[in-house]
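During the second year of the project, the team shifted from modelling isolated chains to modelling whole assemblies. The rationale, set out in the original proposal, was that interfaces cannot be judged from single-chain predictions alone. As a representative example for this report, we include one of the complexes processed in the last quarter. Its constituent sequences, exactly as entered into the pipeline, are reproduced here:
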Amino acid sequence: MLLDFDRLGALRWLLVGIGVLVALFLLLPIVFIAALSFGDSQWLVFPPPGWTLRWYQELLSDPRWLEAMLTSAKVGLLVTVLSVLLGLLASLGLVRGSFYGREALRALFLTPLVLPVVVLAVALYAFFLRLGLNGTLLGFVIGHLIVALPFSIITISNSLEGFDRALEDAALICGASPLEVKLRVTLPAIKLGLFAAAIFSFLVSWDEVVLSIFMASPSLQTLPVRIWGTLRQDLTPVIAAASTLLVALTLVLMLLVALVRKGK
Amino acid sequence: MSLLSTTHGPPLRQAPPPRWRPSVEFRLTLPALALLLFFFILPVLALLLRSVMEPQLGLHNYIELFGSPTYARVFFNTFFVATVVTAVTLLIGFPVAWLLAIMPRFWSTLLFAVILLSMWTNLLARTYAWMVLLQRTGVINRTLLQWGLIDQPLPLVNNLVGVTIGMTYIMLPFIIMPLHATLKGIEPAILRAAALCGASRWQAFTRVLLPLALPGVAAGGLMVFVMSLGYFVTPALLGGTSYMMLAELIAQLVQSLLNWGLGGAAAFVLLLVTLALYAVQLRYLGGGRMGRGGR
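Output from the structure prediction step:
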C-alpha cells in the first residue's frame, strides 16, 4: 500500500507537495542568481527594476576575470587528461588483478574523496611551500588531480566490471596482439565510462575551491578563487554573472553526459 | 562469445605462472599510487607530525586545543551544526526519496534531474545565492517586511541560521540518493501484505517501511554528518567569524596565525573523527555508498 503510488490516497498529495517544495528549494537559488545577473540593480534588488548585460560586460572586459577563467580551463583540461589516464591504468589493475592487498589499494585510492578537503589543502599548502609549487600551474594540477582521481577510478572501474572479457580473448584468438586488443576492443567498449570520467574530472577541477584558495597567488588564480576573493569584499552582481556562466557550463556538460548515455 | 570462456580468465590462452600474474596488474596502478604516496600520504603525515613537534616535542597542542574554551566553542559549533543539518535533511529527504521511489517514471526522472543539477552546480555559486537571499536587505527579509510579518530585518547570516540553511541546501541531494536506493529496493508486496493483515497506515509505516529503510537512513545520515563536520566554504561564508566551525579554524590557524602545530593538531582531530565514522559505516553498513569529504 505505502509503496503503491496510486493507492496512497491523501498521503500521495502530501508527498507530492513536499516534492514540489523541495524541487523549488533546490532550483530557486540557481534561477535567482541567473535573474540577478541580468538585472540592473547594483544592490541586488529583486525583482530587478530593469534588465541589462552590464555585469557580463564588466566580467568579460576585466583581464583579471579572463585570466582566472583561462587558468581554470587550462588546469581543468590537464587534470582531465591525467585523471582519465591514471584512472584507466589503476582501474585495469584493480579490476583485473588478484594481487595481495588489492582491496586496501582500492580503499587508498578512494580516501581523498572521503577526507575533509581542508585537511588535504593545509597539508599540501605546507608541502608546496617547501617545493615552491604554490601559485604555479603544476601545483593546481597536482592538487586537483588528487581529488578528481577517485571519481575517475570509480567510473572507469564500474564500466570495466560490466565488460565481458571473453571479447578480448576472442580478439586474441583471431590474431590480434595484446596491445591491439586493448586499443581496439577494450577501450571502445568502455568509452562511455571514459567519457563520464573525463567530464566528472573536469567538473571537480573546475569547481574546486578549498585547495585552490590555499594554493593561489595574487598573480595566478582560478575562477573559484577569484569569486571567493571578490565575495569576501562585496556581493557585486558581477559574481552573479560569473556564477551563471559556471552553472551554464555545468548544465551543458551534464546534458552531454545524459545524451551520450541515452544514445548508447 | 561467452561460450569460449569460463567466468574467470581465458581458458585457451596459456595461464601465466601465478607468481608473475599479479605484478603485471599491480604495476598498472603504480602511477596513481606514486602520485598519492608523494602528494597525499606524505604531506598529510608531515602535517600530523608537526602537530607533535612544533613548537616543541610533546602533546602541548592537543592540550591547548582541548583545554581552551574558545576551541571548545568551535568543536561544539561543528558538532551541533552537523547534528542539526543531519536531522533536518533526513526529515525533508525521506519523503522526497519515498516519492522518487514510487512516482511515475517521467516525473521521477525530472525530479532526479533537478537534484543532480543542484548537486553539481558550483558550490560557490550556490553559497553566493544564499548570501544574497539571506542578507539584511535580501529578498527574504524584504518580503517578510512587506507582508508585515516582521518589523525589523531578521539576522539570517553570520549565525547558526545561515549556516544551517546553506548546509541543508547542499546536503539534501546526498541524503536523498542513498535513501532512494534503499526505498526502491523494498518490495511493495510486503506493504500490501501488511495492509491485508490488518495493519493501519501508521502501523505499516512505523513497523514495516521504516525498519526496512533503516539501513539507508543510517548510511545517508552518517554520510551527511561526516561531510558537514569537515565543511569549509559554506560555514565560512554564511557563518562568518562569529559562528566558526572546525575547518575554518584550521584554515585560520595556518593561514592567518601561522600556528602550524595547533593547526596540525586540529586537522588531526578532524581527520580521526572522519575516518572513525567511515570505519563504522564500512563495518556495519557496507561500503557500497561512499560519501564525499567536506568541501
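Chain A touches chain B through 94 residues (CB under 8 Å). Residues 63-96 of chain A form the longest helix (34 residues).
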